[in-house]
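Issue 218. Parser rejects a valid record. Input:
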Amino acid sequence: MIDMYMEDGLTRELAAARVCQDVVLKAISIGPLNRNVTMSNR
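Output the parser choked on:
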């Protein structure tokens, strides 16, 4: 996944951060409390 984001123009560090975000969001989305989480971009 990191390589995919790097192909889109992100640096390795930003690509790794994006993958970490993807993993956390996926875990939240399939978890039992997925309807009780609010996300903010602040």
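Fixed in the parser; the record now loads. The chain has two helices and no strands.
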